[in-house]
Amino acid sequence: MATEILYFAWVRERIGMASETIALPDGLTTVGDLVSWLAARGGGYAAAFEDRSRLRAAIDQRFVTLDAPLGRPREVALFPPVTGG
Amino acid sequence: MATEILYFAWVRERIGMASETIALPDGLTTVGDLVSWLAARGGGYAAAFEDRSRLRAAIDQRFVTLDAPLGRPREVALFPPVTGG
Amino acid sequence: MIAVAVDARPIDIGAEHAAIAGGGAGGVATFTGLVRADDGVVALELEHYPGGTEAALRALAEEAVARWSLTAARITHRVGRMLPGEAVVFVGTAARHRAAALEACAYLIDRLKTDAPFWKKETLAGGERWVDPRGSDDAAAARWEP
Amino acid sequence: MIAVAVDARPIDIGAEHAAIAGGGAGGVATFTGLVRADDGVVALELEHYPGGTEAALRALAEEAVARWSLTAARITHRVGRMLPGEAVVFVGTAARHRAAALEACAYLIDRLKTDAPFWKKETLAGGERWVDPRGSDDAAAARWEP
What we know:
The complex is a heterotetramer, with two copies of chain A and two copies of chain C. By secondary structure, chain A is of the alpha+beta class. Helices cover 26% and strands 27% of the residues of chain A. A five-stranded mixed sheet of chain A has the order 2-1-5-3-4. The longest helix of chain A is centred in the middle third of the chain and has 9 residues, at 31-39. Chain A is globular. Chain C is an alpha+beta fold. Chain C has one domain: Alpha-Beta Complex (Aldehyde Oxidoreductase, domain 3). In chain C, the strands form two sheets. Chain C has a four-stranded mixed sheet with strand order 1-4-6-2, with helices on both faces. In chain C, strands 5-3-7-8 form a four-stranded antiparallel sheet, with no helix packed on it. In chain C, helix 3 (98-115) packs across helix 4 (135-142). The longest helix of chain C has 18 residues, at 98-115. The radius of gyration of chain C is 15 Å and the shape is globular. The chains are: A alpha+beta, C alpha+beta. Chains in contact: A-D, B-C, C-D. Chains B and C meet through loops of B and strand 3, helix 2, helix 3 and strand 7 of C. Strand 2 of chain C pairs antiparallel with strand 2 (27-34) of chain D, so a sheet runs across the interface.
């Protein structure tokens, strides 16, 4: 199943794109596992994900922590702490 | 010295006028004394001042309690508890 | 910037708001009291104490500006006859940060209810009646005492 | 009545306010966040998470309406590029009595700061920078936990 990965703010800028569609490999249990798998690509991915304490995530538009089960989502978003309002 | 006495809301309606100018007699020590002196006129005054717990006052535009010293004010206002906002 | 007004004309919320933004404010908080049609009220008449009212409102605004370091405070109270749904009072506060603006706004409307000389008279189908003060207003004002 | 919006156009405060009055409300509380020109900021760019943002704002508004029995709640957040003095966000709440409207308004802006996916980027004379979250925002949001 294909999953849409969305990037926002400086995560988006470092990776150099706003979204991509990925067929998730087996063995990714948590959101953090997905982040590690992406970071292993190096380059902008490694730069975007170097500080996990400044990374937030949403699965299918619901905010989750990085240790949340990944499941089989349609959409995962990765982004910095929010600063709206 | 002449003092302007102002009445508001149902105090004004019961007395039948919005203001009057009075030469205060000697012997009125507190605002409450003034109220008693006015109430002794009977009629609308007695009706307006029959329940002191529902009466409020201001001397020269400053809110005071009925036991406040009357002094020699230019203006005394007598009115019900306020209900603005 | 402090501005208080007592006016028989309808309150223009957009204009009131614009008057307190600016001046380095990061947030504007407002409260607007509206005439409710409770119990068949068809109109509300607001009486005030000319001169005394403005002095009371200004004193409240000055207190709030000092206590919360506001960049602006504005109180506009309507008087005369008005209809359900119309605005009776507008309180607006502006500050660099939101907590100050929000708290000062709540403070001003709570204190205005007990400290400013206005009186409400309701017109109902069967006649008129002066509104009695609510005990909850005294309690709300008292919570701001140091 | 709940309405949330994310829009690149300037926020019309008068129209926002009018949209939440009515419906038996006795009071309307609002908070408007403005772009500050702190540290030489010349512009602010707001990014959001389309779809996710609206869902988050709607969930917050629904919580507030239930918790404070509001007659209306409205959140309008601007996105894109804006200038100092312009409104970033409008939060409006209406209720029969003022305490509910005022508390719910403070709740919504506190929670929005930590729970809605928006990101601010400042333009300064020397370049651009993403805004870091403030620890005080987490503290403000946490005070509403039961």
